[in-house]
DNA sequence: AGGATGATCATCT
DNA sequence: GATGATCATCCTG
C-alpha cells in the first residue's frame, strides 16, 4: 500500500486532537485488506496529563510529534498494540486513539486472527482491533497510506461524548467519542 | 452485570 | 522496582 492522502482527511488531521477525534467517527480504516468503520475514538494532547506526549518528545512517543496524518502505535500493558492517528501541526504532540471499528472487510482473515470472537466484536477495543488487522509497533511513525489506509465515511447517526477509559489521570476530560447505537463500541456507550 | 486477577514488557524512577 | 490510553478469564450475585 502506498496511496496519497485524501485532502479532506489531511485537513482534518491537521486540526487539534479533540476536534479530529469527533470528526473521524464514521471514517473507514484498513490494513492489509482488513478493517472497518471507526465507531469509537479518544483525544490526547500535549498538555494532557493522561497523554504520552505530556512530558515532551522522547522514546516511544516521538511519532506523536510528527505532522498530523502519521500513525503512532504503542504497546499497552506489555501485551497489546494500540493505534493512534497523529493530529495537528508537526511538533504539537497530539493523537487520536482508535478504540473500535465496525468490521467491513477482511472478515475471514480477522476471524483467523481472533478465533472464537463474534463478528461485530472483531474490532472492538484498541488492543483487539490491531490484532484483527495485523497492525504492530513496526508501523508506528508511518504515514497514513503506507501500512494503514483511511477513507472518509459517515455512519449516518449521532456522536456521543464521555470521559476517556482506563485512565488514572485527567479522568474528567470528556474526550471519548462514540457512534451512538453501534454494537461494536468497546464498552457501554453514553446514553442518548 | 459487574468486580478481581494475571499476563507481560517498554519506559521511567 | 513500579507503572500502565488492555483484555480474557474466573469468580460472585
Fold and architecture overview:
The structure is a single chain. With 192 residues, the chain is α+β, with helices and mostly antiparallel strands. The protein has helices at 7-13, 17-23, 107-113, 126-133; strands at residues 28-31, 34-44, 71-76, 80-87, 94-105, 148-151, 159-162, 176-179. The chain has one domain (7-179): Methylpurine-DNA glycosylase (MPG) (3-methyladenine DNA Glycosylase, Chain A), CATH 3.10.300.10. It is built from four helices and eight strands. Strands 1, 2, 3, 4, 5, 6, 7 and 8 form an eight-stranded antiparallel β-sheet that branches. Strand 4 and strand 5 (94-105) form a beta hairpin. The chain is globular. The structure holds a DNA duplex (13 and 13 nucleotides).
User: CA-to-CA gap between the ends?
Assistant: 38 Å
Structural class, by secondary structure, is alpha+beta
Helix content: 10-25%
Q: DSSP strand (E) fraction?
A: 25-35%
Relevant terms:
single chain, 192 residues, alpha+beta, 3-methyladenine DNA Glycosylase, Chain A, eight-stranded antiparallel sheet, 8 strands, globular, DNA-binding
How would you sum up this structure in a few lines?
By secondary structure, this protein is α+β, with helices and mostly antiparallel strands. The protein has helices at residues 7-13, 17-23, 107-113, 126-133; strands at 28-31, 34-44, 71-76, 80-87, 94-105, 148-151, 159-162, 176-179. The structure holds a DNA duplex (13 and 13 nucleotides).
